[in-house]
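Lecture notes, part 5. Sequence design as translation. It can be helpful to think of inverse folding as translation between two languages: the language of shapes and the language of residues. The source text, in structure tokens, appears below.
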């Protein structure tokens, strides 16, 4: 069992991360809710039609006009359609993990080789073009952040400067930027500035690199937007804690 000790706030706070159970705790054993876990409470209705479309596409690709099917063949088609969204998610995750790894290494200054695969090369190349075009300077990556005020933890993907303006950034390898994606870096920003009050952030940004090579950079600036996004996170955090208490009711 791999447990990592993380020192924050000049050593005043020690957080322990259990990699096997993906669990964060304080030194006294108190559990800490992560940003992603808190946001899991938010419904994701866009996944329902997506999964239905995967099942429909699977059936359409299998059925042939004018052909009769027996009971076992029909059952096999239905089972394949039932699992179609899992297979699609697995395929996308494989591509997404590779691109995320490439971008993460680039942010760390490791200069990974550009992939040979055309789809991967296009996705990675668009990210590199954005960095060069806007003279993006990465200052930190994969930083654990913790809020003593609200007792939540997370790992921000990167901190960068664009035209001397400071941003907290998040990497996504998905087909779109959903509402919870907007909230996530705002939570990281709050925890980071709680520990490092001298860091003055202009906003948050999301770098989304789709499996088809599309690249989308979304920047969120302004105190009103930031406050609204963080308030939404606090609501999700409160509801997550409330539901955990409900589980204890017999």
């Amino acid at each position: 069992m791999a447990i990592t000790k993380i020192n924050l706030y000049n050593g005043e706070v020690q957080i322990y991360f259990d990699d096997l159970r993906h669990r964060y705790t304080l030194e006294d054993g108190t559990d800490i809710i992560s940003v992603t876990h808190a946001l899991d409470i938010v419904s994701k209705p866009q996944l329902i039609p997506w999964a239905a479309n995967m099942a429909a596409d699977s059936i359409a690709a299998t059925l042939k006009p004018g052909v009769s099917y027996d009971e076992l063949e029909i059952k096999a088609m239905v089972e394949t359609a039932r699992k179609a969204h899992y297979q699609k998610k697995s395929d996308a995750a494989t591509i997404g993990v590779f691109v995320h790894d490439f971008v993460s290494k680039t942010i760390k200054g490791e200069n990974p080789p550009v992939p040979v695969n055309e789809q991967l090369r296009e996705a990675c190349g668009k990210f590199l073009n954005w960095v060069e075009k806007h003279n993006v300077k990465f200052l930190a990556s994969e930083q654990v952040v913790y809020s003593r005020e609200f007792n939540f933890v997370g790992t921000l993907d990167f901190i960068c400067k664009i035209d001397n303006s400071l941003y907290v950034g998040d990497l996504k390898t998905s087909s779109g930027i959903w509402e919870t994606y907007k909230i996530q870096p705002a939570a990281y920003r709050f925890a980071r500035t709680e520990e490092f009050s001298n860091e003055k952030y202009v906003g948050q940004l999301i770098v989304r690199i789709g499996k088809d090579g599309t690249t989308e950079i979304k920047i969120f600036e302004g105190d009103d937007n930031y406050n609204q996004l963080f308030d939404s996170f606090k609501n999700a955090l409160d509801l997550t804690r409330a539901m955990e208490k409900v589980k204890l009711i017999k």
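The translated text above is only one of many valid answers, since several sequences can fold into similar shapes. The radius of gyration is 21 Å.
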